[in-house]
């Protein structure tokens, strides 16, 4: 089975408070984004990688690509002002009706076995995401005053990769632009159109490196994976 992957990497990493794109921070001797790219570079099912970055960081991305010897990166495209726009720009550079995965540059820990399960589910159903059941008790609150405890039974935390037929997700992104729908992931754009998306049970280790303590956790899991 084959797939392409779009990797949005054009963020600023404001919650990391590192004064630079968090994807360039060191993780076990190389930039965080190099770990994410390596997973797909080494996966035989992955035919090409589309990376979305900020144009003024293209040089840094190109240096990383060269240093690591990555050869599946077919395009480095200019990202947009939010994640959704960056993904759309990446999708725009792909043609055909292959399976496309969308994967956050900030998730360097996804297990390739789960990626393959996701690709197989996408092949079957047309749209699938990795997600994990929530562990915490979830409160809804305004101004820190709780109004409700939400039944956790049906709640999942969405992760990436998320897998789609290319034409389906391209159409959803185009419609979202026209209707002004915004989502922090790609499945939500299909959901807004009433289209079905299936969950593949993911792994709690597939964290999105977002705040400083996540780097410590990522380092721990990468050490475990490499030994
Ligand atoms: N992303 C992107 N283009 C943007 C914003 C985000 O490609 N305009 C990417 C990020 O680089 C990241 C992924 O989307 O790989 C998930 O976003 P997030 O974790 O929110 O990263 P940042 O937006 O960089 O971080 P923050 O929200 O803390 O600023
Ligand atoms: Mg963000």
Automatic annotation (TrEMBL):
It catalyses: 2-C-methyl-D-erythritol 4-phosphate + CTP + H(+) = 4-CDP-2-C-methyl-D-erythritol + diphosphate. GO terms for molecular function: 2-C-methyl-D-erythritol 4-phosphate cytidylyltransferase activity. One of its GO terms (biological process) is isopentenyl diphosphate biosynthetic process, methylerythritol 4-phosphate pathway. InterPro entries: IspD, IspD/TarI, IspD/TarI_cytidylyltransf_bact, ISPD_synthase_CS, Nucleotide-diphossugar_trans. It comes from the Bacteria. The record marks 15, 22 as: Transition state stabilizer. The record marks 152, 208 as: Positions MEP for the nucleophilic attack. Pathway: Isoprenoid biosynthesis; isopentenyl diphosphate biosynthesis via DXP pathway; isopentenyl diphosphate from 1-deoxy-D-xylulose 5-phosphate: step 2/6. SUPFAM superfamilies: Nucleotide-diphospho-sugar transferases. Keywords: Isoprene biosynthesis, Nucleotidyltransferase, Transferase. Its EC number is 2.7.7.60. Belongs to the IspD/TarI cytidylyltransferase family. IspD subfamily. NCBIfam families: ispD. HAMAP family: IspD (MF_00108). Catalyzes the formation of 4-diphosphocytidyl-2-C-methyl-D-erythritol from CTP and 2-C-methyl-D-erythritol 4-phosphate (MEP). This is 2-C-methyl-D-erythritol 4-phosphate cytidylyltransferase. It comes from Pullulanibacillus pueri. The gene is ispD.
């Amino acid at each position: 089975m084959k797939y392409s992957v779009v990797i949005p990497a054009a963020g600023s990493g404001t919650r990391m408070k590192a004064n630079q794109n968090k994807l360039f921070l060191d993780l076990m001797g190389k930039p965080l984004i190099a770990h994410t790219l390596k997973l797909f570079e080494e996966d035989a099912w992955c035919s090409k990688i589309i990376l979305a970055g900020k144009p003024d960081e293209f040089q840094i991305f190109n240096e990383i690509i060269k240093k690591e010897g990555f050869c599946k990166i077919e395009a480095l495209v200019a990202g947009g002002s939010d994640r959704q726009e960056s993904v759309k720009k990446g999708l725009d550079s792909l043609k055909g009706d292959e399976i496309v995965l969308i994967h956050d540059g900030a998730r360097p820990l996804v297990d390739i076995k789960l990626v393959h399960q996701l690709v197989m589910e996408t092949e079957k159903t047309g749209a699938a995401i990795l997600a994990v059941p929530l562990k915490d008790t979830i409160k809804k609150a305004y101004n820190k005053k709780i109004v409700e405890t939400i039944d956790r039974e049906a709640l999942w935390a969405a992760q990436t990769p998320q897998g789609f037929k290319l034409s389906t997700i391209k159409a959803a992104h185009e419609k979202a632009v026209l209707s002004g729908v915004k989502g922090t992931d790609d499945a939500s754009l299909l959901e807004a159109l009433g289209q079905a998306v299936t969950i593949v049970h993911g792994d709690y280790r597939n964290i999105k490196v977002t705040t400083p303590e996540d780097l410590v956790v990522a380092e721990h899991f990468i050490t475990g994976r490499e030994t």
